[in-house]
Amino acid sequence: MRGLKTFALSVTLLALIAGCAPAAPPTIAEADIRGTITHLDPAGSILIEGVTEQDTEFDRASVTVTAETRIYRLEEGNLLPATFASLQVGQRVQAAFTGPVMESYPVQATASQVVILSDPVPGAAGPSPLPEPTQSPLPLPQQDTSSLPSYSTLPPAASAARNSLAAELGLSTAEVTVLSYETVDWPDSSLGCPQPGTAYIQVITPGYRVILQARGQQYEVHTDDVGQATVICGRPSDAEPKEVGTVDDVFRTVLAYLSATYPGFGLDQQEGWAKENRTPAGLVGASTFAWRSGEWTLEVSYPVVMEPTYQVALSHAQASVVWSGTVSAAGEVTPASTPVTLTSAAGPCDESIPLDELDTWAGVEVTAQNGAIHIEQNLFYVCCAELALSAGQEGATIKVIETNVGEVCRCMCGYSVRMDLTGLPSGRYTVEVWGVQHRDVHPLELLGSAEVTIP
Q1: What are the start-end ranges of the E strands in 294-371?
Q2: Strand order in the sheet with 397-404
């Protein structure tokens, strides 16, 4: 009996010793990206920029950090626990991804692990948006971005809505643009889109209403709160124009109109438009709302009356106002001035120009010819670009906006671009050429301007 007690005591001690044994130390996961944090959104995302290395796959990524993400600091070969509050702009980090990676540039993904490799060096220069030796031919302007909206990734439900529509239409996700999204409490499990002959659970279901655009048409997709369930609820209608009942309808109507009419503005590349109320405090009888995405802002003002006429302006943080007009209660969009007709032609990519001469070769020349404004532009840019150009107007200032709707690759060349602006009455004009924007990789920069008189 004593031997049995001794055996039992030994087993108990072994169990206690095993229970008190230290847990295995954490290990560094295989990295998908390694680089510098260039932007941090307190809501839970970081933008990492670096170069593709032998053991990494991406050079630029917008990374969502969740409660499940493990964050560590690497010190003397050991991984020490850290938190989201430990992350700083300028730190060198690496991240491992979990789940799907959105096909965009930068890519968008959720991190399973983030490791802080080193802290920022005081006074050190920030990283280049496209690291050497593949620097963009257009230097990125130094500007105060404190007034610009923070870069943030789409919520998982909005991404799921985009993926669902892309699959339904047989498109890539890059061909589907998220115009806006909002949280909604659906009255039942139908997500606001009940189908005849189908029974639904009668319970409040949190989710999202996501407005998407594909092939020039708008779609409305409803989701649950995590994007596990999606339903395409609103499909394009052949009825044009469509009545607008709310200021959100006005926003969607104008955005669709501008995207289709002015492809050079690059609005199809903007996602996650954030809505804000700009109505001055105490003002009664009128309202102003604005939607912002990247450096673009679409502002809508209107009197609080039955069937109002909405005043709309599209502006850019650098180029200022590029379009203004009105929207009627019937959904008719009317520009404030007669639109300028822009015709353009770009020569083939000329790689014979020495790279060290491209900067001096580039330039813009503006002249008045036969009642029109003629522009000759030498542009150096990435060799795989596909340029879209549109002309906006603010008073007597004509603003040509250039957007790369193609790819960003790692070679440079020169383009000879010719443009003609017609339909303008006699007078003196200021002509500005802004380019070349591509999503949030290349922001707009003033490439040239001149004053010219049409007799």
Answers
A1: 296-303, 310-316, 320-327, 333-335, 341-346, 363-369
A2: 387-394, 397-404, 427-437, 445-454
Q: Give residues with Cβ within 8 angstroms of 48, minimum separation 6.
A: 33, 34, 35, 36, 37, 38, 60, 61, 63, 93, 95
Q: Token pair for residue 392?
A: 């906006």
From CA 331, how far away is CA 324, in angstroms rounded?
15
**pLDDT tens, the chain, 455 aa long:** 444 444 444 444 444 444 445 567 788 999 999 999 888 877 788 889 888 888 898 888 888 888 889 999 998 888 999 998 889 888 999 999 998 877 666 778 899 999 999 887 554 444 433 333 333 333 333 333 333 222 245 688 888 888 888 888 887 777 787 777 778 888 888 888 876 656 667 788 898 888 888 876 788 899 988 888 888 886 654 435 566 778 988 999 999 889 888 889 999 888 778 899 999 988 888 999 999 998 999 999 999 888 899 999 999 999 999 999 999 988 899 999 888 888 888 888 888 888 888 888 999 999 998 889 999 999 988 888 888 899 999 999 999 999 988 888 878 889 999 999 988 999 999 999 998 998 878 889 999 999 999 99
| Strand partners of residue 317 | none
Provide the whole-model pTM: 0.52
Instruction: Give the length of the chain.
Output: 455
